[in-house]
Amino acid sequence: MNKKTLYLIGILLTIIIGSILYNFLCGNNCSINTSNNASELVTEPVSDATKNAFMVKDNQGGLDLFIDDNLNFKISSFNILEPVATAVNSGVLNVKDYLLTDSLKIINITGFYSVAENNISAFPDLGLARANAVKNYFVSTGIPSKKINTYGELDNNMKPDNNNIYYGPVSFSVSTLNDTDLNEDNAVITIGNNLKEQPLVLYFDVAETSLNLTENQRHKIANLSRYIDKVEDAMIQIIGYTDNTGDRHSNIKLGQHRADFIKRYLVGNAIPESRIQASSQGSDNPIATNDTEEGRAKNRRVIVTIN
């Protein structure tokens, strides 16, 4: 027998012996492990998530849209998930064309939220924050903000999917204004007067980098947003102040830093940057004595109002 034949016989014997040892040592456990591995690959079934369509209907006109998709949000978020479906974007453009052909038509946007969510927005509730984000999306297509009303509403029946996405937590309706009805104008005027008389005041500790808003402060921010939506030339004015510690130049810079911080915060909450002015008065115009820590704390403030 030559070397080549012996070599091939050796390979064959190795395969046979290896197969016998595998079956002897592995036995039924091999099939069990294979079954377990297969079960690990099975994905969790998708939950029966709530899915609201994009529907806009004018009962007093010719608009009647139904799109089997909508604007979607992550749980506890007020940012619209991108990309927006092409059909939804086309629907918004149809709404724009409809509203612009009739000066008395307005659209109402209601955002929904649940008690299971954490409101990280500057608005009184996450539903209103979502409605405001949708409003800004509409405005980006050319719909004037004064033709849009926003609302927030609790809905604990909403159910997210397994990826914590809410599909369409928002609804729409179209209204026709009565051109002799001044209630809306009067309400906006009242908001403006109140914001001028009782502006939003935010106090700063040394090195503070976050905000913990009260319910009253959240309502003021909602009113600021509503006012600039309805009054074309209105601007949100932010002025930063400091106590008298340090020199005037440094305090002007610190006051501007605080004003810019609040501006970024409002922009991050879907309030248009172009409608916000931020400036500083440093340690000028104190509202309390700088001789005590309590007084200095009151002077470290930012005033947010409208002009």
UniProtKB/TrEMBL annotation:
<keyword id="KW-0472">Membrane</keyword>
<feature type="domain" description="OmpA-like">
    <location>
        <begin position="191"/>
        <end position="307"/>
    </location>
</feature>
<dbReference type="InterPro" id="IPR050330">
    <property type="entry name" value="Bact_OuterMem_StrucFunc"/>
</dbReference>
<dbReference type="InterPro" id="IPR006664">
    <property type="entry name" value="OMP_bac"/>
</dbReference>
<protein>
    <submittedName>
        <fullName>Outer membrane protein</fullName>
    </submittedName>
</protein>
<feature type="transmembrane region" description="Helical">
    <location>
        <begin position="7"/>
        <end position="25"/>
    </location>
</feature>
<feature type="region of interest" description="Disordered">
    <location>
        <begin position="276"/>
        <end position="300"/>
    </location>
</feature>
<keyword id="KW-0812">Transmembrane</keyword>
<dbReference type="InterPro" id="IPR006665">
    <property type="entry name" value="OmpA-like"/>
</dbReference>
<dbReference type="GO" id="GO:0009279">
    <property type="term" value="C:cell outer membrane"/>
</dbReference>
<dbReference type="Pfam" id="PF00691">
    <property type="entry name" value="OmpA"/>
</dbReference>
<feature type="compositionally biased region" description="Polar residues">
    <location>
        <begin position="276"/>
        <end position="290"/>
    </location>
</feature>
<keyword id="KW-1133">Transmembrane helix</keyword>
<dbReference type="InterPro" id="IPR036737">
    <property type="entry name" value="OmpA-like_sf"/>
</dbReference>
<keyword id="KW-0998">Cell outer membrane</keyword>
